[in-house]
Records
---
Amino acid sequence: MKDIQTLLFANDAFYAAFAQQDLPAMTALWSSREPVACLHPGWPPLVGRETVLRSWASILEVSNTDITHEDPDAWREGVVGIVICNERLGGSLLTATNLFRLEEERWLLFHHQAGAVAAVPPPPPPRPGTLQ
Amino acid sequence: MKDIQTLLFANDAFYAAFAQQDLPAMTALWSSREPVACLHPGWPPLVGRETVLRSWASILEVSNTDITHEDPDAWREGVVGIVICNERLGGSLLTATNLFRLEEERWLLFHHQAGAVAAVPPPPPPRPGTLQ
């Protein structure tokens, strides 16, 4: 259970670094051990820590990092921690897979994929006179 | 090394079941152990074997399963096998993360995410008179 809490904490730290455009924090969150990979929406796959961190440097330079995440599902398979969650980035809803590797008792990111979710329409407004 | 070959074989089997609309084969490829999850492009996250297999039943019913995959990168982290690859589905280029769990010496799928890649434009035609 403590594992899952620390895994969720690492996942929170990833989105905090993203939202705060904090490249040093983002860099520290990613594993120094290869393989490391990242599948940004609309990009070809990036493989290798240096390539992945270069992509984050360019993403965090832009101003639209108004990202939040919600509804995480987290579990552990041996040394791998898996988190799937929704992301809200600007007006878009995305869904993500984040993979962490347990290294010296720290969960370090080694893979991230995010992709668009078709927006779920909001529920219809209540009809006048109906009970809520 | 043998691990990686069997992992790539399991990944090939996934795309063969997809392309051949073979629901029994697809069902056998997915782990019977929870957690199981699947993030189809444009869909909200699906969690749980039954929900995930219901989604595959509806996907394999439609006719556009003209899928191929290419450029897989595969590696192992303990009991987890990770494959990232490109997918070509109809005219679309997607990229995917496939996660397999080693269960009684078989790699069984427990997570899949696919998402669109912006098409890379083909290289421009050579100018007349230039050397190739």
Note: DSSP finds three helices and six strands in chain B.
---
Amino acid sequence: MNLEKYLKEKRELVDSAITAMVGPLKGSSVLYAAVSYSLTPGGKRLRPILMLSTYNAIKGKEEPIIPFACAIEMVHTYSLIHDDLPIVDNSDLRRGRATAHKVYGSDMALLAGDALLSFAFEIISNRLHLEKFRESALLAVIHEFGVATGIRGLVGGQVMDIVSSNMGSIDKETILYIEEKKTASLISLALRTAGILGEVGEEELKALTDFSLEFGVSYQIIDDVLDAISSPEVLGKDTGQDKKNRRATFVALYGVEEAKKMANECVQKGIGFLAPFGEKYKILTDIAEYTLQRIK
Amino acid sequence: MNLEKYLKEKRELVDSAITAMVGPLKGSSVLYAAVSYSLTPGGKRLRPILMLSTYNAIKGKEEPIIPFACAIEMVHTYSLIHDDLPIVDNSDLRRGRATAHKVYGSDMALLAGDALLSFAFEIISNRLHLEKFRESALLAVIHEFGVATGIRGLVGGQVMDIVSSNMGSIDKETILYIEEKKTASLISLALRTAGILGEVGEEELKALTDFSLEFGVSYQIIDDVLDAISSPEVLGKDTGQDKKNRRATFVALYGVEEAKKMANECVQKGIGFLAPFGEKYKILTDIAEYTLQRIK
């Protein structure tokens, strides 16, 4: 299978599903515009693609889980909009164009982010899902969305990121905390949602979780490396931000080369957790290996 | 029954339940401080008290619904924190003291709000609720939380509030839209959550909804009247804000006296919807009448 072709197909699938979902909100004019601007055209859609791919590996189909894949992308986009705000990172560029607050103002960007978080929960709690999934699995997934986006997840990571950069303190433990909460928690949510709705056993869910956490940390390290060595033209977002904001990253602590090595090690370790399942989750390990190419 | 005593007892019940819920988050230091500061001591706890009272009227107990009452207060507090931010209303005073961003900075206030929204969903999707409520009722309630806090609720109202005040346009329809979305949607959520989890019939749920929407609009009108005629010392928050921000309110459109009359009319109309149930929901109509006293 050609992985790039696969990723492109899945990305287009996610794009059109998101467009269809946001469409009915058109009535709300400015807000719809800000939400729609932020969501489409989107980024790599990594989290939804991981969710679709995991579910497909389990059940041999992906259609039932598409709304959840859209929801996780909405959560991701919400966190980007809020992180980009002038009162946080003050970023001008995202996904190749001006950030939401640059176009719609900080108040509308704030509210577009807020709306996306609520919308994600609205989507995943739709009672139509009861035709396809057990109620207890749905409830568990909603709970995981709550935890992964909150204090013990996204928000907690972002807070530690700000606190540690204000204090100028960089140590391995803090960096790992930030990468796990800020990035790995959503990637883990993607795989766990697929695992829970696909009703895999406890051991398998644990393996998927362990893989996703390693992959998530590696993905954030790759992001940090690219922030240090790439350009806005290539990445479509501001670079050199981590140094400017004195962010606690492995690049800052150990340098680019060592960070690259760590990203690779995380991926290999993660892949090890899926070994007991043979080829079943090959698509996940392929994607993980593929992301490493960005820093090669 | 002495209503003031009743409200005080319920307020204390909500206060201690919230304190117990937020306690386990202590590890997250600054964020916990910002969240805890914003939540306690709280305001009147109107929304959770309405939820408890409604459920009690239906089932003769309130314990099972306490977590949901806490969650709605968290949602309410989240919306206050975000509305108060310098990039929106830029308010300095809330609940008798400095707003969250004045104490913890705009970035932490933003994230404390974000955390509270996620936390609310985390709380209401806890699987322990399955011991007390049917799964389909739980799922319905989570969905209602998503809708009421999103584009078709809180956020939508806030956006229209900003847009209309920027444009300086004030007409009855716009004002009603704002009051319904910004305020009535959460008050309605309080009653509907109790009705759905209490498993009342469709007609009864509709009556509760109709009452709550009228009451919600009246409550926002009362708030607008107080903003015009009261003081920060009495209210514990900045006053005169609506005029300053050229907000679209009935006070601005018709004046204080006419607005008072409208608030009263809404309450009376709302009470009418509950008439078919005799004394069952007397506590709700008592609370609604009581809120009117603030502008007498």
Note: Chain B touches chain A through 52 residues (CB under 8 Å).
---
Amino acid sequence: MATALDSNFYAIIPAGGVGSRLWPLSRADEPKFLHDLAGTGNSLLVDTWNRLTPIAGNNIVVVCGVAHKATVTEELPQLNAVDLILEPSPKDSTAAIALAAAVLVRRNPDAIIGSFAADHVIADDRRFGNAVREAIATALAGYIVTIGIRPTEPSTAFGYIETGAALAIDGAPHARSVSKFVEKPKLDVAIDYVDGDRHLWNAGMFIARASVLLDELRTHRPDVAEPVEAIADAWDSPERDETVARLWPTIPKVAIDYAIAEPAAEAGKLAVIPGEFHWDDIGDFAALARLHNHGRANVLVTLGENTRVLNEGASGLVVSQTSRLISVVGVKDIVIVDTPDALLVTNSTNAQRVKSIVESIRAMGADDVL
Amino acid sequence: MATALDSNFYAIIPAGGVGSRLWPLSRADEPKFLHDLAGTGNSLLVDTWNRLTPIAGNNIVVVCGVAHKATVTEELPQLNAVDLILEPSPKDSTAAIALAAAVLVRRNPDAIIGSFAADHVIADDRRFGNAVREAIATALAGYIVTIGIRPTEPSTAFGYIETGAALAIDGAPHARSVSKFVEKPKLDVAIDYVDGDRHLWNAGMFIARASVLLDELRTHRPDVAEPVEAIADAWDSPERDETVARLWPTIPKVAIDYAIAEPAAEAGKLAVIPGEFHWDDIGDFAALARLHNHGRANVLVTLGENTRVLNEGASGLVVSQTSRLISVVGVKDIVIVDTPDALLVTNSTNAQRVKSIVESIRAMGADDVL
């Protein structure tokens, strides 16, 4: 191991987000993080937990919606009740992470937190662990730290982090400052990024002293910080429920990238550790197909427990949650998702458009299949 | 009407053939002719019956497999038991039509028969009727007569009839001799056929005096004619079942095109009436899509009673026999056939390959979905 375990380190797993682009596999009551998308035999949530225990031990806090309490505790029987933070309603990543940080800093003023989404795929746990350890060392030096993934292709589906100067931090030889965050680019820009070797994918992983993170939030978004701190004050007390019920609805929805990371980068307070491991947020079915075809674009990937698929010259992805016989004839790059009450047929090129189908379904009032 | 109804005319409707290329819509126990593919509200079988009654009155005989007796009589409650000929096993079109002709000629030696498949679509019943009346007049002059469809495009899915000299037949101003039958051609050949104006589509409709048809069969295929005649001798007697059981299995399987029409054409005994109406045998899902998109290649045709389809920029065909929500995103020219136990996804280009899927399913022993 690169550095010893820091007992002040706490991993936060925000388990939010339905994964609309993965409908009809992902549903409101069975979101993306509950599915075994990586083919490990475990849900992405359990994979995330298992990836973090070598680094954080039992110091793992899960933040999820009240609707998913039962399934999350079923997936993670080892999770202590005190380490499960339930959101009454979704308020995006800033509220989830800040509340966890605020609760933890009250339990341990030296807490260092690291936030890792419940529904991402990482292939190399050892390299991931090394990056997190460098990030912890950098956080101890006072930075807010992100882990940016070394791009393997000019993806237009991810945001990018532009790296700046190397930082001289003990235990973090690869730490650099962050010049700025860049939104999902056009292809030609993405190609320049990959060629230029200064840009990393923004994987949404943030590591910081809890107190530093909350100070930044208070500076840039007091409208989020104030109710979050007030809720945290009441969290480990009999006033929790009343305070949550009163203040949670007032919290603005904002992603942590906008609320904290971007202003911190501008202020020179953001550092980045390059992650030299395979990472994917499996944002749509095209990404899911790529994850499983191992670069062979001409195969038909089939996922599902009782999958009966007959392939006659087709390629792409079949996800089956039924026992129906699925015959796929001649179509290339197809995406078929077969569930008991809903069927999706699209292809890789159009995989991002699935989100708008979900909006159409909501508009037509067919919420039973969402 | 072009000519008065000839009371010696009998329509034969061979209701055979599963329609493998329309799997999983067509099944062994629910073949193509039982489906409402034309969107008329009736099965193709009932459409065929309704098209023939203005010409043949009650003189309509249906030939079908024993397995379909119940469904056929349910579809056609007006069909007299004496006019339903049940095949113990499928023996292709020659046996079916010849047996019906042989039974009918024993009941009426002057019988003229006309054979019309149970699972074709015809758009203009009046023009169809006119062609049949000309065919009857030509059959009365001693010819075996086919109705050939004027091609509207250089189809490579149909066989063609090369027409010869005009025949001078009373009541059949458009009758011509047939030079020869041509198998499904390559596209460049088909283009020449359409440009040349001498070729018609072979729609498998045959009209002849029953005695003439059976004489031809006896000449060219005595191996079919002999058992068929022997069965017909016993048909309206107590010996029917025993004779059928003994002789039917010995009958060779052969299409009437090969057994009778081609040799009759060579012998100058075949005539053709050009059919100036829209006809389609709906041989595959591409044909079914074309039938319903009315030339608008960019629409998504949806067929099915409780169809719930959400279309986001897709085109092609969705056939739904379930109440599932089907979302189709961005894929062009797609074919989706959704049934309770089997799903097919292909596209128009590959629609003909569905037949081989059915063979694969049989090979893998999944006969439950055939």
Note: Chain B has two domains: 9-280, 285-369.
---
Amino acid sequence: MSRIVMKFGGTSVANLDRIRAVALRVKKETDAGNQVAVVVSAMAGTTDQLVKWTAEASPMHDAREYDTVVSAGEQITAGLLALCLQNIDVSARSWLGWQVPFRTNNIHGSARIEDIDTSRMIERLEDNIVCVMAGFQGISDDERITTLGRGGSDTSAVALAAALKADRCDIYTDVEGVYTTDPRIVPNARKLDKITYEEMLEMASLGAKVLQTRSVAMAMNHRVRIQVLSSFTDAPGTLVVDEDEIMEKQVVSGIAYAKSEAKITLVGVENTPGIAGDIFGPLAAGNVNVDMIIQNISEDGKKTDLTFTVPENDVDKATNILKESGHVKYAKLMSDREVVKISVIGVGMRSHAGVAARMFETLAAKGINIQVISTSEIKISVLIRAEYYELAVRALHTVFGLDAHPE
Amino acid sequence: MSRIVMKFGGTSVANLDRIRAVALRVKKETDAGNQVAVVVSAMAGTTDQLVKWTAEASPMHDAREYDTVVSAGEQITAGLLALCLQNIDVSARSWLGWQVPFRTNNIHGSARIEDIDTSRMIERLEDNIVCVMAGFQGISDDERITTLGRGGSDTSAVALAAALKADRCDIYTDVEGVYTTDPRIVPNARKLDKITYEEMLEMASLGAKVLQTRSVAMAMNHRVRIQVLSSFTDAPGTLVVDEDEIMEKQVVSGIAYAKSEAKITLVGVENTPGIAGDIFGPLAAGNVNVDMIIQNISEDGKKTDLTFTVPENDVDKATNILKESGHVKYAKLMSDREVVKISVIGVGMRSHAGVAARMFETLAAKGINIQVISTSEIKISVLIRAEYYELAVRALHTVFGLDAHPE
């Protein structure tokens, strides 16, 4: 007997037929003698509709009311799945965030989970009642509904799995698992059987859309065994686990890309002490998330060129902040949205030198110019011109031995 | 300064434009210095969609899950109206049933209100914050969402008005008030300026769809002054008030009709003591609501014919109960759905004799046969063949002086 958390995203519960299919999957687990808690997203499209209404109702909306409106989507799915389960003779009840309760701070719209009281839910699980929890939502200490931010249902599921001390957290989605890279770009990308938390975290934050970054970080902290798998097929998925569970480590596990980056270059900045703080301080204060940074010092050492990347959506904001702050003297500000960040990821890099060199050589051989580089212990990222990104991903996928072998 | 409860039904909040129009109406009241609580229904169509899904998910649905799903509709409207109010600089917050809390018993799907704790809401009202409450919903003592049954938002509004000791409960709907009869049948039906609780109660239970019967009974018990008015025009509505607030009473205030009745006749029933109990006991036990009853005793006194009416939807159920109970011996059972109940209503009848006689004469003059009669202190109802109902309503409307005078 295991205790399992199963999470189903929006496409997996897009309509009643899909919800019925989910109920059958849950029944398989209960028939096998497992205790099951299920976390559901809103039906695909519902959240978008509700978000659109709140924006139309009040462009500068009160996040507490936004949360009240938007959380209704998961409420509907939770009730409907409980009904579909009952209809196939599986005992079930729905739980809303405030009923668990799933306590969060009061940062509405992107609340953080503080405490989950699972005592009542565990009683039900031990009575073999499936607990269907509305994902994405919690309750603040002033008894208002909060939401965890887009994609927050993954985080709900992992947090619930941690609180329930579940043996496994199965994340059902519309892909069959975690791939070495995006199969739309590299048709012979391979599905990974296992991936480490660290690698998954990099994959998620670097653009792979399979799991929400926060949920992976939480799983890593609480050692929740995640399985990513498809709700549309019966194929085995990808397990996200501790490094020591993976016997034979690949040097490189995956290639990720992020198209939503933009590059800003300040030309002819006076190279005085504290200049970096003058530039990046106001950007941080304005909530602009700066990612990669490089600085070239001119020959005479008096002027410098500074290049950094920000989310594409924040280019105008960043530009305005720099123009208005007044502290920073520069000759010219240039921005470029036509860039893509390509990352090579693998825990094996720690013990293998030469990955960076091989990456740079591979790109050079294809005539691809590298604009910015940043590295961490288990990943190397480069910024290149957008038009080369598929070419770059394919070349790196091959050179690091990730292509599937024809069977 | 007054304290007002305003209630808006589904057509009044059918889309964002309508919700914005509602916000403007609310602002008028706050601008006039009033404290305002608003009760909202789900956007027109939403509840039907949610109900349909629950029925498809599980035909014999768990009413607790039904309530969880269906109550989401009002939750969405409450949040959106709060946002629309904030957007025109009116301080507002939404309240869900469980947040108030609006305590009910645990008869899910048709719960009854037990207690409303308005202390926190009153604090907000006194700070001039508009309180937007999701109608139709409450919370049971095991912390599950309950709903009050279709049309329950009227009851929510009246109950809230009673609990808040509001000066007025304005029910905004898609008609301009309470009419002497259905204007679709009698184009020169008049809108009533005032109507008594008792009359309104008869009108509501006899088929006038303006207010939910339960809400009128509650208003009468708690002496809540209701005003029924249109959210689409600025015309004054109809006040539902105590009898002593109406100076000049009409003998007859309105003509109602109900098409959803059906007639069942048992021919040749053995006329033994206790036979009525044998017939109507099992029907009551089966939750079949019997309305009008007549009994004709045959010449020899040994056999009797019994006729009664039940809701059209319950004809099959009633027939089965009578056939299966076995206690009742009869020669023949006949049912007839082609009947309509016509009612003449007015508190003035108490002091005016002859209303019944005039009603019967009027119908006879039009060649309309009366099948069953029932009376109360302030109403007379007759059952006639369905095909005559418009003719009957028009004739009675004219003969009792209800036609509008051309202006």
Note: The mean pLDDT of chain B is 92.
